[in-house]
Amino acid sequence: MTYKTVMVIAGSDSGCIAGIQSDLKTLQHLQIPSHAVITAITAQNNHDVFDIHYLPEQIITNQINAATVHDCVLKIGMLGSIGAVSAVQNYLSRHHYPVILDPVLMSSSGHPLFAGDMKKYCDSLMKLLPNITILTPNILEAEILLQRKIHDYDDVVSAANEFIEMGINTVLIKGGHFSGDFSQDFWTNGNESCWISSPRLSKHVRGTGCVLASATSAALAQGYDIKDALVLAKMYMNRGFRQADVAARQLYHQDGWPDDEADLPSVLPLPEQSESSAFKRDEQFNMGIYPIVDNANWLQKLLPLGIKHVQLRIKNLTGNQLEDEIKKSVQIANKYHAKLFINDYWQLAIKHGAYGVHLGQEDLIDADVAMIHASGLRLGISTHSYFELARAHAYRPSYIAFGPVYHTDSKLMSFAPQGIEKLSRWRKLLQYPLVAIGGISEDNIDTVAAVKVDGIAMISAISHAQNPLLAASKFMKKVTANAA
After folding, report:
1. Strand partners for 383
2. Does the structure show a pLDDT above 80 at 411?
3. Domain edges within the chain
4. Hey, is 39 helix, strand or coil?
5. pLDDT at 484 over 70
6. What is the CATH number assigned to the segment(s) 5-268?
7. Which residues contact 438 (CB under 8 A, 6 or more apart)?
8. Cα separation of 314 and 302, whole Å?
């Protein structure tokens, strides 16, 4: 679901680096219409906060009502007073939109950003939690809200689960305040969880939390789900951080979502200790047509045509029959000097000396990826979304498969067709070899090949053709012609 605009409720930063100025700048660069509700006026610079004037509850309420915003995402930053919390609570009781709460409690210089007693203020803030879609505290803010210390990654997980038990939908605890080679945020919705990790950069800039939450709200407004929104926001923040003006302690802003693989985070089930070793890639990775077949007989038919990459995806065999089919397929591939990827059955691929393994997202849970790497096999991973791309990126595979590009009946899909525009976007983003898959046929193969993908996976367009060998030959010629 998409939303027309983002309403930002936050304090004003007179330095224009954090606060509502940073929120609005982020939304503008991501081309999201916005409305602003100011809760406090600060006098501050890069080094200190000199004064804060907290606006009365009534004027905050009047700003909210004056916006007359319907169909919006709500991004909440610094509220600062119990009156501001009350104004927001009244609004949330009447409207049910996606809400991101970045509970800004302290400035970078350590100045409190709330009025009065800390416990009373935090108690009032916690009453908002059941109405919040995503809570995004950093370590210090989580400690203040929960009134306990967070010493390590295990404490981060328990703190996040504590927030979930309070009724919040999802929580992202930002790990920028921890030390180590990686900056790692922990996300959970109570059923799923992951770490979103990026190499730590030795820079001190302000406004990172504001930008991350605002970029998340922008992605939600554009129709991305929560997990994709968080990955996209992390990419946007990573780009801004990577290109930051260190002297001004200011993130760099650029129009549009990032299109550089350098900004892509890794999504992992556990905290990242060291970057995974990359899987081997061909020096000149050019798959061309990449048939996906379900038995060895297809290899015997197709490989004499000169096809050099093929995937064996068996769904109806088990036990000795399965192993015999894989063993036979490896032998046929070796005979024709073709590179055979085995879908899913990585143990048998290792045992019988296949060229590589292809894993779906669900297969990553159970596969011993380290063993696949140690065996010297290549690895391809299927992806359908930015979140899945970030999870694949954590393993540094030999290639990334993206799809379905078009509608397909070859496999029951939980993802809608992604389209050629998104395929083009991923081609620009990724340095990985990229394989397009899903619904590719004679009618659209020229369009796909024009994107300059490294491989075009095909199933029914070949296997269901009236003359499969003739169809495969035509596809090979088309791809060769587009590569010229």
Report:
1. 402
2. no
3. 5-268, 288-483
4. strand
5. no
6. 3.40.1190.20
7. 403, 404, 405, 406, 407, 408, 410, 413, 417, 418, 457
8. 17
Respond yes or no on whether the N-terminal peptide bond of residue 199 is cis (omega within 30° of 0): no
- E strand segments, 257-366: 266-268, 288-293, 309-312, 339-343, 356-359
Nearest to 91 by CA among 121, 70, 119, 105: 70
**Token digits of residue 179:** 């030390």
- What is the phi/psi pair of residue 162, to 5°? -65, -40
Backbone phi and psi for residue 233, each to the nearest 5 degrees, phi listed first: -65, -40
DSSP secondary structure code for residue 261 in this structure: G
Indicate the CATH number for domain 288-483: 3.20.20.70
- Structure token digits, residue 396: 């540094």
pLDDT digits (tens, 9 = 90+) for 314-369: 999 999 999 999 999 999 999 999 999 999 999 999 999 999 999 999 999 899 99
Task: Look up residue 99 and give its two tokens.
Answer: 């809400």
Tens of pLDDT, residue by residue over 91-110, are 999 888 999 999 999 887 77
Q: What tokens does 402 get?
A: 């993206």
Alpha carbons 388 and 232: distance in angstroms, whole number:
12
Q: How far apart are CA 114 and CA 112, in angstroms?
A: 6
3-state class (DSSP) for residue 185: strand
Helix (H) or strand (E) holding 75, with range, is strand 72-76
CA 261 from centroid of its chain's CA atoms: 12
Q: Dihedral angle at the C-alpha atoms of 464, 470, 476, 482, nearest 10 degrees? A: -100
Buried b / exposed e over 190-227, threshold 16 CB at 10 Å, is: eeebbbbbbebeeeebbbbbbbbbbbbbbbbbbebebb
Rounded-to-integer distance, Cα 154 and Cα 156, Å? 5
What phi, psi does 458 have (nearest 5°)? -135, 135
pTM tops 0.70: yes
Cα 123 to Cα 54, 86, 372: the distances in Å are 18, 12, 50
Euclidean distance between CA atoms 415 and 405, whole angstroms: 10
288-483 has the same fold as 5-268: no
Task: Grade residue 247 by pLDDT with cuts at 50, 70 and 90.
Answer: low
- How confident is the model over 170-200, as pLDDT tens digits? 999 998 777 788 999 999 999 999 999 999 8
Kindly list the distances between the CA atom of residue 217 and the CA atoms of 99, 120, 206, 224, in Å, as whole numbers in the listed order. Answer: 8, 28, 19, 10
Beta partners for residue 288, in sequence order? 455
State the DSSP H helix or E strand holding residue 380, giving kind and residue range, or none if neither: strand 378-383
